[in-house]
Amino acid sequence: MQFDEKMLAIYKDVGRETKYWAHRYLQKVKRVGGLQAAKDWLKPKSSPTSGLQKLVDINRLDLSVEALVLCQPWSSLFTNEELHVAQKRLNIASSFRLSEEVSNEQKLVEGSVCQVNINSYERNYEARRRCIEHHGTSCCVCGFNFEETFGSMAEGFIHVHHLKPLSEIQEEYEVDPNC
């Protein structure tokens, strides 16, 4: 199924689930295509649509454009900025449910597949071992020792830091565990 078809399916699914037929949504998807419509709605300066509020009201954010674009294979079609807007809107929308708005009769749906792409910077376990061997398990900056604070269950635990975080370096480099 192509992205345009998924966007049309959202219209139909929301209509069937809620009896709310988002005609402006459908017109835009048909006029500019699903991908361009989603990109327009996810511009950083744009406001969330009234349709998103309707989905919040019925606790079905899983039927939103924002939820769709965060899932694979669709997320690869969007910029990091657009994905950030989608995630931020979902986070904000889901945090504003008041306890009196939650009904025991609502459908609770989970288990849909959503892939998330992240950058993970590999650590060298031998370098870690040598660093701990050289510096011990107390933090060299603040002196914190997990075992002293939490007892024997935390013996040997320490988080080894880099002076410059790996996420800022963004490439492989040779490390000296004795520094």
Helix content: 40-55%
Q: How many structural domains? A: 2
Topology as a string of helices (H) and strands (E): HHHHHHHHH
Task: Kindly estimate the percentage of residues that lie in beta strands according to DSSP.
Answer: under 5%
Number of helices: 9
Query: How big is the Rg?
Result: 24 Å
Name the structural class: mainly alpha
Counted beta strands: 0
Shape: elongated
Major sheet: none
Mean pLDDT: 81
Low-confidence stretches: none
Distance between the termini: 53 Å
Walkthrough of the structure:
The chain has 179 residues and is mainly alpha-helical. The chain folds into 2 domains: 3-97, no CATH class; 125-169, no CATH class. Helix content is 46%, strand content 0%. It has helices at residues 3-18, 23-32, 34-41, 50-57, 65-69, 80-95, 125-135, 146-150, 166-169. Helix 1 runs antiparallel to helix 2 (23-32) and helix 2 (23-32) crosses helix 3 (34-41). It is elongated, with a radius of gyration of 24 Å. The N and C termini lie far apart (53 Å).
